[in-house]
Amino acid sequence: xxxxxxxxxxxxxxxxxxxxxxxESSALLRGTGIAKRTPEYIQKKMESKDAVxxxxxxxxxxxxxxxxxxxxxxxxHSGLIVHPDYRNLGLAKKIKSFVFxxxxxxxxxxxxxxxxxxxxxxxxxxxxxxxxxxxxELTSDPSFWxxxxxxxxxxxxxxxxxxxxxxxGMLYDPKEKPKDPPKHPFNVRVLNRLKSIKEALFLKK
Length: 205
Prior knowledge:
Layout: E1 3-7, H1 16-30, H2 39-47, E2 51-56, E3 59-69, E4 74-82, H3 91-106, E5 111-116, H4 119-128, E6 131-133, H5 142-146, H6 154-159, E7 168-172, H7 188-202
Parallel strand pairs: 4-5
Antiparallel strand pairs: 1-2, 2-3, 3-4, 5-7, 6-7
Helix pairs in contact: 1-2, 3-4
C-alpha cells in the first residue's frame, strides 16, 4: 500500500459523498451516536483547506477535518474516519497526528478539543497530549453544540444543559505543556469504567 495523507484540494471534492457514507455506516455498525455530515459541508471544509484526506493510489482510505470556534480560540478535529479496507493498520492515528500538527500550524493560539465516546479515539488523543476535561472547559459557542442535534444521544446532552453526555471531553492547550511526553497517560480501565457509569446513569429506563 502507498497511502499518502495530504491537505485537501479541489480534486478531492469527488470523495465527499463516500466520506459521509463511510462515517454514517461506521456509526451504525458501532451503535454509537454521531453528528451527521452532508457532502456539501465536507466539500466546504475541503475548499477552506480545513481537511485532510488519506489516499491509496487514488482510493479513499481516510479523512478528518478541522472546525474553529470563538474566532479561533478553540479548534476541534471532526469526522475522523478510516475506510473499512484500511482499518487495523494504525491509519487513524497517523491521520489524527497529521491533522493535529496541521491545526497547530494553522491555528497556533487555539486550544484543541474533542468529544467522543470511542476509546480508540481517546487513546489517540491521550498520546497526543490531550487531557480529559469537563465540558465547561470546552468552547461555549452554541453552534458547536447545535452540531450534536443529529446525534442519537442529543436528548441526554440537552437535558444536562450541554454540561454532560455519554461523550468524554478532551483538551490540548499548547500553552500549558509540550506535546511530548503526555502528562495524562491513557488508562483504558478507568475510561471504560467512566463510560459504563455514564451509560448506567443516562440510559436507564
